[in-house]
Amino acid sequence: MAFKDLRDYIEFMRKRNKLIEINEEVSVDLEIAEITRRATYNHLPPLLFNKIVNFEGWRVISNIFYSIESFYEIFGTNRLESISEKFISNLSEIPITFIDKLKSLKDIIGLGKIMPRARSPNFKEDYFMNLAKLPAIKTWPKDAGRYLTFSITITKDPDTDIHNLSVYRIQIINEKEAIVHWQAFKRGSITARKYLEKNITKIPVAIVTGVDPVIAFTAASPVPHGLDKYMFAGILRGEGVDVTKLDNQILVPSHAEVVLEGYVDLNDMRLEGPFGDHMGYYTPPDYYPTFKLERVYIRDEPIFHVTSVGKPPLEDAWIGKAVERIFLPFAKMLVPELVDMNLPEYGLFTGIGIFSIKKYYPGQAKRVMMALWGIGQLSLLKIIIIVDQDINVHDINQVMYAIAAHVDPKRDIVIIDNALTDSLDPSVPSPPLGSKLGIDATRKFKEEMGKEWPEEVKSDEKIAKKAEQILSKIIKKYQSS
């Protein structure tokens, strides 16, 4: 199903009695963030704050992605892989590269219905609104100020017109200026460098808040470079996103609650932070470019979308789990021997990844590690663990067994130094460069081990069947007593 906008989703959740409306007055200064975190830890559904201190007329929604169950509701299925599997099935007969397939979808298989559609906006310009009047929140006591925490920064590639939608934290400085925390390897920053190569230092940008949750999820997802995120949102929605072109030529969702039009000035770098991030630590201050506001558009009775970050599992952890499921079929296209993957919610999404493979030849696990470290957001993984296909990657005990029984540290551990890592990782001495660890926890071929792998113990089938019959009677009798 596809939601028209954020309000359509809110009404959907209200009808399911899965919307918590809070009518007590709350402050954007720490209170909303604290309530949201506690709600997420307790797997409570979305929170709609109806009375915001000093922000009359605004409502704030948080905790939309409150657990993996939230994605089952949003996408109408508890098997998220099926969304991308259905899409990929349309490409299976086309003998071209993966990226070429993605770039030429509209022409190849007539997927015009998933492309963005020009529509009249639901928002209108507000000449009196500015950044200081937005109910942006302060998340942790030592944060540098109030931040946009789930607003979407939209840029357009100057060469291809491909639009990128990404979620970056944005620190409000004053009525007209804010600092955009886009790291060097993020798509917004890469797009900015393309403008800089053309001697353009003022990058046209739109920042939107309050969109349908599929668009919000897409913005937070590691969609491959070169693929328009509006088109990817159309793939997930099953229909195109309604968009409106701003004066700066950026397309924005027509039903967004808030639209900030302006530009990012690459010549105006400001000290951003500290900010308590998803790692559970304060990110030290660093220099990032400044957004300069030119126009504000809002809907009547606007709803502002925020999230609260901190130690897992919070909303970003569940977004990571949904990414894991939806992007698994794409990863299998690039790494055919891949069977399953687990990005554990306590593994901080870019911290630990566990992957199972069909192993056919010696050295394959290390080859897969290198391939995975070359794929989009997976390139940031600090630790990769490879196991055999019969190991359930979602059962940490099975994974621990595989490591304990299959790994010789000298032979099976790979350490890569001076590699790209998540710059928010507090353990990295010189971000964004750090080290990576690969663990080959597969059973070894003779070429890898120098001798044959030992035979696994297996029960005698007849004895096992008899034992099961006897034991089932004992259990039944025991439980009834």
UniProtKB/TrEMBL annotation:
Domain 3-octaprenyl-4-hydroxybenzoate carboxy-lyase-like Rift-related: 128-312
GO MF entries: carboxy-lyase activity
3-octaprenyl-4-hydroxybenzoate carboxy-lyase-like C-terminal domain residues: 318-441
Example of a GO cellular component annotation carried by this entry: cytoplasm
Domain of life: Archaea
Domain 3-octaprenyl-4-hydroxybenzoate carboxy-lyase-like N-terminal residues, every copy: 10-84
InterPro entries: UbiD, UbiD-like_C, UbiD-like_N, UbiD_Rift_dom
Pfam families: UbiD, UbiD_C, UbiD_N
Transmembrane annotation, as ranges: none
PANTHER family membership: 3-OCTAPRENYL-4-HYDROXYBENZOATE CARBOXY-LYASE-RELATED, FERULIC ACID DECARBOXYLASE 1
Annotated family: Belongs to the UbiD family.
Protein name listed in UniProt: UbiD family decarboxylase
Organism: Saccharolobus caldissimus
